[in-house]
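Lab notebook, bench 4. Still working through the backlog of constructs that have no structural model yet. Next entry is a single chain of 573 residues. Request: give me the structure tokens for it.
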Amino acid sequence: MNELAKTYSPADVEDKWYSYWMEHDLFKSVPDEREPYTIVIPPPNVTGILHMGHMLNNTIQDILIRRARTEGKNALWVPGTDHAAIATEAKVVAKLAKDGIKKSDLTREQFLAHAWDWKEKYGGTILEQLKKIGASCDWSRTAFTMDDIRSKSVIKVFCELYRKGLIYRGKRMVNWDPKACTALSDIEVIYKEEHSKLYYLRYHIVGEDGYAVVATTRPETIMGDTAMCINPNDPKNAHLRGKRVIVPLVNREIPVIEDDYVDIEFGTGCLKVTPAHDMNDNMLGAKHNLETIDIFNDNGTISEAAGMYVGMDRFEVRKQIAKDLEAAGLIEKIEDYENKVGYSERNPDTATEPRLSDQWFLKMDEISKPAHRAVMEDVIKFVPEKFKNTYNTWMAEIKDWCISRQLWWGHQIPAYYLSDGTFVVAENPEKALEEAMSVTGNAALTLDDLHQDEDCLDTWFSSWLWPISLFNGILEPGNEEIKYYYPTTTLVTAPDIIFFWVARMIIAGYEFVGEMPFKNVYFTGIVRDKIGRKMSKQFGNSPDPFDLIAAYGADGVRMRVRLAAPAGNDVLY
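Model written out:
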């Protein structure tokens, strides 16, 4: 046995047999009389390379699919990649910058040509790595969220939902990445504990000698203040009822309003209300009909609306305004303060901004109900079952989905504007022109009179269709493959995307096929580093699995990571 261990070369054996399997199409599946067993791969980002989280997830999928084959089932594991709009666009912008080219100097078409070149050069890396670890996918079915079938499916779905009145355009508060200059989904915001400062600012009470004092971590936003708020049950601030105060440095009078939202115990119990730059302030602003002043440009610099510090970066303003407030005697004190600050997952050095922005939204209250019931009634089984509680909490409080992104790489929103700002929604420019003629009664319109919306759709808006679009179930409903392989059998994923992918796939399944997209969801643990951070390319904290494979073989590494990872429990590597 010891002699065998000395001479055994994992690479020789694994490469030999994988080549044999591929040459003989042993992973290929077509519909037949057998019972199907289907898994669709959680599509890794086209920018991606294999890390230990991928190793765990794909090992479990491979175990399930190989077991199904041994049981005589028609086992199909469908591979593919996600276009990863923000991450890929950032990669392309960085590459262009190295070549001395700015995105702003290119047309959309020129930029997209560079993006497709980048995708063709690097986009298949992670799939080739999955082959190297022995993943038994039917590679002939490899899909991409921006290939022809998937792209047409996304546009068709958008148009159908819009015509049903489920998609609308409106100004809402979103998470904003000032570096990428785009809205973000909640999952793309990573909250970090920070050592901050709490600034106690003096707001002069109109008609009196005294001050009302507000505690804030963001003095740079005072130019957007449109009210001060106190809790009506707070005796220490009762003297401020009905008064007006003056925003320090800005010298603008604002009213004192009352709302029991205010935490009496935080700071002085006085809250500055900046409706354009805080989610909760925005709700207060809407409730109390306050003015909204947006003091930031898209890139996080100060806008003309602020009236001061125009053009300066927001964090430079924080330093400068603290000095100016101090010099004017308008800071009572400054304390050290620990708080959580949101950062863009795709630009980890960039703090996000809550921002009012014109975006496209999908109404979620009614469309989500069948998906909510399916999990709670165990029509779809969660393993471990504990994640039903997480799912239930989110689905019970579901909010409308911001589906637009200010990017060029992705599915361009199929809305076409006329010169007066009105728009029509259609699958392509020709249909849009017909619609515009019909709506306006102007038969003289041409394609030159239409301008397509510049925004792209959120990447999740394509991946929520994944179990359907992989079998062309959107463009050809009821085709032979969708009838045979759908619903798929098991989804294997990590619990951190339960809201943003799992729930939305279930919603899409019931909305577009009338049936669940999968029967079971197996939640893996999350592979974390020694200080508890999720392993990811952004953090650079995952060991290179191929260094481990070179030492121990793919089977050895996969077996070890699997044995260390019971369902739903995180793994500290």
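Notes after review: The domain at 188-353 is CATH 3.90.740.10 (Isoleucyl-tRNA Synthetase; domain 2). DSSP finds 18 helices and 25 strands in the chain. Flag for follow-up if needed.
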